[in-house]
Design brief:
The chain is mostly helical and about 150 residues long. It is about 65% helix and about 0% strand. It folds into 2 domains: about 5-75, no CATH class; about 85-140. The chain contains 6 helices and no strands.
């Protein structure tokens, strides 16, 4: 039967994940086929089942914490007031459409080559200026991405 210590840990981890009672019961039912942690339940949870539940919960908490840390890292250098101007975003969209068309793979590859964020939402005004300069240069030179040939076409 599940110990009081294991039960308290389960409740704490569920609270850390922001789960209410219904969510906790649903997940317990999914993981071990039992929905109650109560000691006086008709079919109490064994210690091995409790260990399985704790392993799942610890994994979920680690995933949530790593997601929060990644989001914090992404937000780290973007301060209010450092977004590109609407004019810069418009110029990027226009030049991107003229140079790359609908080829998103080539566009992302170009951003990686320039060591820019892979999404315009993370651009600073300096990133936008570098991107516009590069796209303008490619547009003037008449550059277009090389189409990828299909292995079946050969």
């Amino acid at each position: 039967m599940i110990t009081d210590h294991q039960r308290r840990i389960v409740f704490g981890l569920c609270r850390e994940l922001g789960w209410d009672d219904d969510m906790r019961h649903a997940m317990l039912d999914q993981w071990v086929g039992k929905s109650s942690l109560a000691a006086n339940a008709e079919h109490p949870i064994s210690q091995t089942e409790a260990a399985t539940i704790l392993r799942y919960l610890h994994t979920a908490v680690r995933q949530v914490q790593s997601g929060r840390a990644a989001a914090k890292r992404r937000r780290r250098r973007i301060w209010p007031g450092t977004s590109p101007t609407p004019e810069q975003l418009h110029a990027i969209a226009k030049l991107r459409a003229e140079v790359f068309g609908a080829n998103d793979t080539a566009w992302r590859g170009r951003l990686q080559t320039l060591k820019l964020p892979v999404s315009e939402q993370w651009f600073t005004p300096a990133h936008a200026a570098r991107c516009i300069t590069d796209l303008s240069r490619l547009h003037r030179a008449g550059w277009h991405p090389t189409p990828v040939s299909s292995p079946r076409a050969n």
